[in-house]
Amino acid sequence: MQESLAIVQQAKELGFSPKGFGFSVGPGTPDFQTTLQNDANYVLGGVQWTPALKYHGDDLFQTPEAYNTLYKQTFGYEPAYQSADATAVGVAFVKAIEFYGHIQFDERGINATKPMAVEQWQNGRRVTVWPTDVAEVKALWPMPAWSAR
Predict the structure, then answer these.
(1) Could you give the CA distance from residue 102 to residue 97 in angstroms, rounded to a whole number?
(2) Measuring CA to CA, which residue among 15, 9, 17, 80 is closest to residue 51?
(3) What is the pLDDT of residues 72-121, one digit of tens each?
């Protein structure tokens, strides 16, 4: 961000007036405008997120606009796109845990309650054999002697 601020400030100081400025980092942060004031006008910037996007999810926020509103209510200012990016990581982490299964860490930091499944190779294919309510096939047991295969 510092580079984009410096470029705009130096261009103004030198009287350099291009048709436009565009930056990948800087304009998407609130500090850009508060630092440059009116000199921030007309500057273009790419961002990973904006409340104007029309995404709809099944998470706590559901839409970018709702996220923006809740963020402003909580912190008193609009989020920079980096805040939304970080929140998206948290949402993805929750989804990963929900997909992965039950997780509860004990005092040692070990997930002691996560149930395990058992797979077995059968006829060149890996299949789930336990727990029985999700087993694709029954386990082949006992394993025959090498000479009997």
Answers:
(1) 7
(2) 80
(3) 999 999 898 889 999 999 999 988 888 887 788 899 988 888 788 999 99
- What is the average pLDDT value for the chain, to the nearest integer? 91
- Give the predicted TM-score (pTM) of the model: 0.60
Longest dimension (CA), the chain: 88
DSSP 127: E
Q: Which residue's structure tokens are 């850009």?
A: 32
- Which pLDDT value is given to residue 147? 94
Cis peptide bond prior to 131, omega within 30° of 0 = yes
Regarding whether 65 and 42 lie in a shared domain, the answer is: no
106 and 59 co-located in one domain = yes
Looking at the DSSP assignment, which residues form a beta bridge with residue 122? Answer: 125
In the chain, the number of structural domains is: 3
Judge if 13 and 52 occupy the same domain: no
Q: Are residues 40 and 53 in the same domain?
A: no
**Which of the 8 DSSP states describes residue 144?**
P
Indicate the Cα dihedral angle 7, 13, 14, 15, nearest 10°: 100
Structural domain for 134, as ranges: 118-148
